Amino acid sequence: MSQRIETDICVIGGGSAGLSVAAGASQMGARTVLVERAKMGGDCLNYGCVPSKALLAAGRRARIANHSAEFGIDGQASIDFARVQAHVAGVIAAIAPHDSVERFEGLGVTVIQADARFTGPAELVAGDTLIRAKRFVIATGSRAAIPPVPGLESVSYLTNETIFGMPEKPAHLLILGGGPIGLEMAQAHRYLGCEVTVIEMATVAGKDDPELVEQLRKRLCADGIRLLERTKALGVAAKQGGVSVMVEKDGIAEEVSGSHLLVATGRAPSVEGLGLEAAGVRYGKKGIEVDARLRTSNRHIFAIGDVAGPYQFTHMAGYHAGIVIRNALFRLPAKVDYSAVPWVTYTDPELAQVGLNEEAARQQHGDIRILRWGFHENDRAQAERETEGYAKIVTLPNGRILGATILGPQAGELIALWALAVSSKMKIGAIASLILPYPTLGEVGKRAAGSFYTPKLFGERTRKIVRFLLKFG
């Protein structure tokens, strides 16, 4: 090795999780080394959250242009797909300086751009540098999981790493996988004028509340997206400059053809080539094994973000970073708490979830209360003509909030209040008694909360009490 570094903390991976740890540790006085072999910002900035939301924003603008007659505005969107992709690239470029090598070196972090490989329990090699550290943090993220579908290896297909760089618009996009990535890309491309077919072995949005997923399913179908659920992909083949997928549902086979194929069947942790065996770090198909403090089987090595799971969201990467900093720098026994993890599928309307859904709540608690309020009963939603969906709140009989699911406009923003409620073990009265500005979409949640009291408040017993009191003047 041409260079040797002794440091306090070494972070492997310059994605959301690794960058959060590196920035925090360095600014708190720890000697910090960051190793990243590819692009700074990782999957989220370059291939995930940022470009997908930018593409969705473009798609929604197109939909608005095509569906404004009810506002008295006539018109039709003219879509230049190359310029759409330039917009996506521009958004990435605008955010990239925040995640850049220059910024982190300015924070005092030593950044090494190379592959990292452990050579022992307390050292690793990155390029021609040997690094010894008191603590290591593995934040290598995840990559697209490729299913074992026959023929897939012999055709050209897209993943989240390649779909945002296409100069041409797909005529017919086939998507394997009906999870958040698959559905978001399906709707974005449909709004931009593509034919879209989604092939899903189980049901779309399978981790969300089935009742609200059914509403979303209807909207996706109304948008013109073909959903093939409970459908198995038997094989893939090239066909006339495009691709075909042989599928089977209920024993009936069908060939589905398209111009492009996107594989969106989940994520796989990035653990290859790290030399984890030499470091004494246990791992498996689901990623690196960690305890509640995010320590690996080598107590001097932590693992965070997608590579450690169980939730592969960028906001969990930031949460994990805070847990590690408290443990690694301050020796505080901070532990993860996954009881109030929110997530959002950024379709239109958005689908957001936090805490327990109805099924999970019944399994854990038995007797529960379900509260609902529709966006069609909200004045702001009516003014915006975005009235699809509703809020569904799950509580105990005593009113303690167990979870919430929201399908509707800006559901990803609205779920924040319910994440606070679940994490703080609040009761429904705290939300019902809020004073909210009018007219806002947030009133949907407040009205749902208020419905908890409706049976008693407007029941016969209350009427009798009121009539009795009014006898006295």
Automatic annotation (TrEMBL):
Q: Does the keyword DNA repair apply?
A: no
Please give the positions of the paired cysteines in each disulfide bond: 44-49
Record-annotated Pyridine nucleotide-disulphide oxidoreductase dimerisation domain positions: 341-448
UniProt keywords, alphabetically: Disulfide bond, FAD, Flavoprotein, NAD, NADP, Nucleotide-binding, Oxidoreductase, Redox-active center
Transmembrane annotation, as ranges: none
Q: Where does NAD(+) bind?
A: 177-184, 200, 266
Question: What are the FAD/NAD(P)-binding domain coordinates in residue numbering?
Answer: 8-320
Note on cofactor:
Binds 1 FAD per subunit.
The name this protein carries in UniProt is Pyridine nucleotide-disulfide oxidoreductase dimerization region
Q: What is the lineage of its organism?
A: Bacteria, Pseudomonadati, Pseudomonadota, Alphaproteobacteria, Rhodospirillales
